[in-house]
Amino acid sequence: MHKAGNSPSTRRPDRRALSRGRGVAGVAALAVAGSLAAACQVSPFGDGDEGGKSGPSSGPVAAGPAGPTTAGDNYVPGDGNGGYDIQNYALKLNITPNSAKQLDGTATITAVATERLARFNLDLTGLDVSSITVNGAPARQQRGGSELEVTPAKPLEKGAKFTAVVAYSGTPEPVSDPVLGRYGWIRTSDGVFVACQPSGAHTWFPSNDHPSDKATFDFEITVPPGLTAIANGEPETPPASTGGAPTGPGLPPDMPTGMPSLPPNMPPSPPPGGTPTGAPTTDPEVSPIALRRTATGTTSKWHVKAPMATYLATVDVGRFDVRTGKTSGGVPVITAVDPSVSGAGVDAFHRLNTQITEEWSKLFGPYPFSSTGGLIDNADVGFALEAQTRPVYGSFDLQPTIVAHELAHQWFGDSVSVTRWQDIWMNEGFATYAEWLWEERTGGKTVKQQFDLRYDSPRARELWDVPPGDPGRKQMFGRSVYDRGGMTLVALRDKVGEPTFYKILQTWTKERRHLGGTTAQFIATANRVSGKSLDSFFDDWLYQEGRPSK
Q: From CA 312, how far away is CA 216, in angstroms rounded?
C-alpha cells in the first residue's frame, strides 16, 4: 500500500508508503500509447431463494462447541475467527451509490469446519441481516459489535463442508481508525471506491476478515445504468467504458504505438542495467459494451480463481475509461481510469501496468494470477492498495514508482500473504525494494543510492527506533516497515550476491504461491538457498533497535 505525501528522505506518514517526488514524472507525463475471452463457468450464486428467514436473534447463547471469535492477532484486535476454513465467497451485490441504502447483498459462503461447531462467528459491521441459512436450513443469529454469531439448525461435524447464505443490506461506513486513518467503502462523486487494508472488508460483506484465511471469490454486481463495476479477477464479459472513451475497437487514429516516450527529464538512451522491456503484444482496446442490461441497471460477473485475502477484495463503481489487452506472456490486462481524474491517461497507465508486470515476472518468478492491471478513481483518498489482480489508486499525483510498488505486491502480499500483521514488512519492504528498482531502471536513483540516502540520513531515527519485524500496531504502516524493510533486502542482496538473492525471491514465490508466509519461513528459505546462516543478519535488521552495520 502507498500513501501520497512528502519525500521519504525527510519523513514518511504513519500509514502506508507515499507518492514520491524523485524526478520521475507521473503517469500523466507519459505520452499516450499503448480482450478478455468471456469466462464460462457454472454460476456459484443461488437461484434467488434465500431459504427463509433466520431464526430469532434473542435468547440465550446456544450450548455446544464454538470456534474462536478472533484470529488472535493483536495488531488487529477482534478481527478474524476460528473453527472453520472458508473456501469461497460468492457475493451478489446490488449497489446504488446515490440511494439511502447503497448496498443490498447476499453472501454465499462455502467453508469446511476444522472442529465440531454448534455455532460460529463471522465478522460484519453496521449492516442489517435479514436472513441466514446454513446448508439450506434457517439459522439463528446474534449480533455483538463487529461479530455475527451463527447457530446452525444442526451442529457441524469436524471436516464437514457447509454453506452459509447471509442476506444483508445497508450503507457501509468507512473505517475511521485513530492509528490507521480512513479506509474501506469510500463514496466518490459518481460511485464507490473500495480499499480495505487491514480491517475494512467486514464493513461491506460478512467474512472471516483476516489474511490467515484466504478463499476464492465470485462477484455478481448490479449497478445503475451508465455506471461500470470493476472487481478483482476476470469478468465473464469485458467491462464497458462509461467515461467518454472512444466507442469503437482499437486505438484512435492519432495514437502512436510502441513504448511511451520518456519525459523530458529522463535520458533518451537506456541507463546502465537496461530499460524495462515488454511492451504489449497488441495495442490496448476499448472494451465493447457486452453486459446484461435492464431498465434498472447493469449486471456483471467477476471470478477470482486464486485464493485471496479479504482485505484485497474490491468493487469499484463509477464512470471509467477501460482498456483490455495482454502481456507478451499472454496474461490479460484490465485497466480502468475515471476520466475526471486530472492527467490520468488510461492508455499510458495501461501500457505501464503491462510493462511492469512483465518486468517483475522476469525477476520474481511467473506472474501468480490470471490477470493484471489497475484502476484510478476520483476517490478523495491519498493512498493506493494492492487489490489482487488490479491495484486501486485514489486521485493523487500517481508516479510510475507507485505502480511498480503495487504490482510487486501481487507476488509479495497477495500471492504470498502474511498470516499475521506483525510480518507486514514482508509485504511493504519487498514492494519498496521493487519501487526503488523501477526508479533505477528508468534513469533515477539507483537502489544503492536509495539505501545510502536513508542509512546516512541524520533524520532517519525512526528507522532505527522501530524494528520492522515487529513494529507494533501504531507503526504497522510506518516508515520503518517500508524503508528499513526495503533496506533489509538491499543488505541481503549485498551479502549473498545478486544471483543468489533473486534465486531466494523466486524460490519463496514459487514454494509459497497462493499460501501464507512468515518471517521465520522466509529466513529459513534464505538460509537454505544461500547455503549461509543468516539468522543473526535478519535479527539485526528486523528485530533490534539501532542501525545495523552494513
A: 11
At 92, give phi and psi (nearest 5°).
-105, 110
Question: What is the widest separation between alpha-carbon atoms in the chain?
Answer: 74
How far, in Å, CA of 447 to CA of 424, rounded?
21
Question: pLDDT at position 195, please?
Answer: 97
Q: What nine digits make up the cell of 126?
A: 453496521
- Look at residues 244, 239, 332, 334 and name the one whose alpha carbon lies nearest to residue 288: 239
Rounded mean pLDDT, 16-35? 35
Nearest alpha carbon to residue 135 among 120, 153, 118: 153
Residue 198: is the preceding peptide bond cis (ω within 30°)? Answer: yes
The span from the CA of 279 to the CA of 260, in Å, is 9
Alpha-carbon distance of 331 to 281, in angstroms, equals: 11
How confident is the model over 497-509, as a mean pLDDT? 98
**Dihedral angle of Cα 392, 393, 395, 398, to the nearest 10 degrees:** -150
**Exposure string (b/e) for 87-125, b if CB count within 10 Å is 16 or more?**
bbbbbbbbbbbeeeebbbbbbbbbbebebbbbbbbbbbb
pTM of the prediction?
0.84
Cα→Cα distances 356→288, 368, 372, 441, 504, Å: 26, 14, 10, 11, 20
- For 264, list phi and psi in degrees, rounded to 5: -60, -30
Segment (H or E) for 104: strand 103-113
Grid cell at residue 3: 500513501
Residues in the chain: 550
For cell 468471456, the residue is 38
H or E segment and range at residue 438: helix 425-441
Three-state SS string across 148-212, please? EEEECCCCECCCCEEEEEEEEEECCCCEEECCCEEEEEEECCCCEEEECCCCCHHHCCCECCCCC
Q: How far from chain centre, in Å, is Cα 219?
A: 16
SS3 category, 9: coil
pLDDT band, residue 293 (cuts 50/70/90): low
Q: CA 433, CA 462: separation in Å to the nearest integer?
A: 18
Q: Which of 41, 31, 1, 39 is nearest to 18 (CA)?
A: 1
Task: Give the CA radius of gyration of the chain.
Answer: 23
Distance CA 37, CA 237 (A): 7
